[in-house]
Amino acid sequence: MTASPHPAEYFLSAADPDFAALIERTGRCRLEPDQTGEPYEALIRAVLYQQLHGRAAAAILGRLKALSDDRCPSPGELLSYSFETLRACGLSARKIVTVQGLAQARLDGIVPSRAGAEAMDDEDLIAHLTSLRGIGRWTVEMLLIFTLGKPDIMPVDDFGIGEGWRKLKRQEVRLRPRQLAQVTACFSPWRSVAAWYLWRASEEGKGPSGKNPVTG
Which stretches make up the HhH-GPD domain (predicted)? Predict the structure, then answer.
């Protein structure tokens, strides 16, 4: 028996005929947030994926996990690893500073637990975490979408989102983030699902695409 469409699919289809066609081509939304993941681990993963191809980032993450019995290192473990050890995993000097800063921030309670993060307003959590070195808005938005499952996030600084909108609307150039935020505001309260479909649109004609720009 086929599951009923997500309410967001009806909403987006009614809001924009191009989205209706995209949803028809793509099929059901397969956005599947991690139901148990912790913000600390999600942020470490997102930092590793910043400005890297998914496969390269996955390889670095795999080497980092290999140091800790195939799991994300705990804050204490990550702080105990030398610069040379982390460089050997493939992390840049900047990312080493960032991930070890995240580890210390988790120990200090600045990076909240999942329960603490879920209790915060989306924008408050973004402001709180972007105060940390090396953590930008995009990184926290990936946490909000793929770990906390927040339904109304549109990461307008993401290349794939901008490219997906350009293709969807058959435009010559990508919109600037502020413009993209304005034209996608009408998709609230389902902007996370809209973002998932825009990632799919950005990959049309390129073969199979991944589910998550942070995990490949």
Answer: 48-203
